[in-house]
């Protein structure tokens, strides 16, 4: 369009090209007519209208590894069982009370039987640590369990996965002609469509965006925006999409106020 002299584009700030003029009298524009939608197409558009985004509920969970299966055996759990933090604490408390491990003189201390020793102590501690405070015992148990998480999207069944959920990753990169771009990955894990996010950012930042396969990630796309757009991206994710800050990394890369790009 610039070659046809319909628009004029200039680089107003480093790495960001903006439209500075439009020839509204150009024949290509004056001859453009918006077609009237047919009743059928109108119905299809209304039916396929996107629902407003609601962030998923993300709950941390714990998976029982083989090394701790004996500790959870009495409560009916085995290797691979998925538990909430509250369930883990209750199981450990019941185990200690049932096996008379609570110190008779100090109820805040728990004696470690052979099973607890094998599950939570390091090798160097096996013959030196005989009892632990409740908070230390529970913390160690949680740390020895394998991470898992549950994601629940509005109106859908919960999805449970092992491991830790990958945060939305925001990075800055240099492209051709030393132009800076903002790259965001892992949007799909939070129910966000990369193409929709790209279109929204293109409009708000007035900068070009592209969507492409994320390197090294199977079935995942990344969004690239021209210039440092971390501030706009952060506002979109935190304020509009209401995603918790702990699930987004790279927000600190936003340009500082008053600093030249």
Automatic annotation (TrEMBL):
Domain SUI1 intervals: 168-241
SUPFAM superfamilies, per the entry: eIF1-like, SWIB/MDM2 domain
The UniProt record lists the keyword Protein biosynthesis: yes
Classification lineage: Eukaryota, Metazoa, Chordata, Craniata, Vertebrata
KW Protein biosynthesis (keyword) present: yes
Any one GO BP annotation for this protein: formation of translation preinitiation complex
Molecular function as annotated in GO: translation initiation factor activity
The entry's keywords: Initiation factor, Protein biosynthesis
Protein name: Eukaryotic translation initiation factor 2D
Domain named DM2: residues: 60-144
């Amino acid at each position: 369009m610039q070659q046809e002299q319909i628009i004029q584009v200039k680089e107003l700030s480093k790495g960001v090209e903006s439209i500075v003029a439009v020839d509204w009298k150009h024949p290509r524009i004056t001859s453009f007519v918006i077609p009237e939608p047919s009743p059928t197409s109108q119905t299809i558009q209304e039916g396929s209208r996107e629902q407003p985004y609601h962030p998923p509920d993300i709950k941390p969970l714990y998976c029982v590894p083989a090394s701790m299966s004996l500790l959870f055996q009495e409560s009916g759990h085995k290797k691979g069982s998925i538990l909430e933090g509250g369930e883990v604490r209750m199981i450990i408390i019941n185990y200690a009370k049932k096996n008379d491990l609570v110190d008779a003189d100090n109820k805040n201390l728990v004696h470690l039987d052979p099973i607890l020793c094998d599950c939570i102590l390091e090798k160097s501690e096996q013959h030196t640590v005989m009892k632990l405070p409740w908070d230390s015992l529970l913390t160690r148990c949680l740390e020895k369990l394998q991470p898992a998480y549950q994601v629940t999207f509005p109106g859908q069944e919960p999805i449970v996965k092992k491991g830790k959920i990958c945060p939305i990753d925001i990075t800055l990169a240099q492209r051709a002609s030393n132009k800076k771009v903002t790259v965001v990955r892992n949007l799909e894990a939070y129910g966000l469509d990369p193409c929709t996010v790209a279109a929204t950012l293109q409009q708000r930042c007035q900068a070009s965006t592209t969507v492409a396969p994320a390197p090294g990630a199977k079935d995942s796309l990344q969004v690239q925006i021209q210039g440092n757009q971390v501030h706009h991206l952060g506002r979109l994710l935190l304020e509009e999409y209401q995603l918790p800050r702990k699930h987004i990394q790279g927000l600190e890369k936003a340009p500082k106020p008053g600093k030249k790009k």
